[in-house]
């Protein structure tokens, strides 16, 4: 689903945020891994790439980690830069230092009753309830796309296994 995620993050960053990131929970449900991201500014994209290559958050830590645990969106507005800078892990500070970010919106990506990741947006202007509702709706569609891609992968794996078994059936009977 990476093509779908790339389009979604680009469109969201351009529509209601300066930056957008989709992070997914790893198989052990211990870390939240930035998977796809976009920034309106190419320099912002570079800085995010450097930051996200170094970083994965522990589930339950930080705002995004909290969203994974609670399954509830978090909206932060008008956070002073110095307070934001002190509240983030050191690897995120180069981004904070270079781009005006005082508002965050993080919503869960869910698959049934389980949170599988987050959709995070940032910008200088505060996010409204309408922005949050839009992000929640798009997060549900992104979750659906991720789920369908997972099912398609399972079907393909099953098909390959059946094909291997069918090809080896004469030798097994034989």
Strand content: 15-25%
Q: What integer value in Å does the Rg equal?
A: 19 Å
Instruction: Give the CA-CA distance, first to last residue.
Output: 42 Å
How many strand segments?
A: 6
* Poorly predicted sequence stretches spanning 5 or more consecutive residues: 150-157
- Main sheet record: 6 strands, antiparallel
Q: Please give the share of residues in helix.
A: 40-55%
Secondary structure tally, helices: 6
Helix/strand order, N-terminal first? HEEHEHEHHEEH
Envelope shape: globular
Structural class comes to alpha+beta
Q: Which sequence of strands runs across the widest sheet?
A: 3-2-1-6-5-4
Write down the overall mean pLDDT.
Answer: 83
Q: What multimeric state do the chains show? A: single chain
Layout of secondary structure:
Layout: H1 2-16, E1 19-25, E2 31-39, H2 42-54, E3 57-58, H3 62-70, E4 74-76, H4 81-87, H5 93-98, E5 103-111, E6 114-123, H6 129-173
Antiparallel strand pairs: 1-2, 1-6, 2-3, 4-5, 5-6
Helix pairs in contact: 1-6
Would you give an account of this structure?
- The structure is a single chain.
- This protein is of the alpha+beta class and 174 residues long.
- It contains six helices and six strands.
- It has helices spanning 2-16, 42-54, 62-70, 81-87, 93-98, 129-173; strands at 19-25, 31-39, 57-58, 74-76, 103-111, 114-123.
- α1 (2-16) runs antiparallel to α6 (129-173).
- The protein is globular and about 70 Å long.
Features of the shown structure:
6 helices, alpha+beta, 174 residues, 6-stranded antiparallel sheet, 55% helix
